[in-house]
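User: structure tokens for this one?
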Amino acid sequence: MTAAPVKQPPAADRVYTHIKQAVLDRRYEGGTLLTEGELAEAVGVSRTPVREALLKLEVEGLIKLYPKKGALVLAVSAQEIADVVETRLLVEEYAVRKAVPAPPALIARLEELVEEQRQRAEAGDLAAVAATDRCFHAEIVRHAGNEILSKLYDRMRDRQLRMGVAVMNSQPDRIAKNIVEHTEILEAIKAGDKELAAQRVRRHLSWVKVVVRGEAR
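Assistant:
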């Protein structure tokens, strides 16, 4: 019996995924002008689904459309980074207090993610390091037991991934420091010390503000 062919996603979805992933990975960096023709050729589709995908990405704030010229990939601004960090501090400090005492499943998952981040860093895959970094924090937020808060946090996912890759490119020494700080947060969670865990989360996230000011830590 012949296996049924694998059905591809709609053309617009394929274009959307291609562009979005490239922007998040910084293969399309801020300031890059993308044309419909180039994108259609890259994905192997006509220009109509390209336009549809670009409109969606403009709504999400990743690009700016210029009629008859193309789509400009928007750079990550210092203000956007500062806003995301402020929101993350509010959510994550609260969440880690709520997640402690942590169930064994959460501790096991966080241990797994720290090890995965270490392996991705050794392989030099910055996009994967950023994704694993984000998963570590998202797991803690999810275990706070507040669905509205978790959904709010998920809405920042794309910004977090893009910023993570951008910062790691500009501050490569931060990758090792991130892993150490994740380990310290995990140790506080394991110890059942919610205040120490919250303190370590704050210290871990606050370094981004230092980077935005152009200083080193």
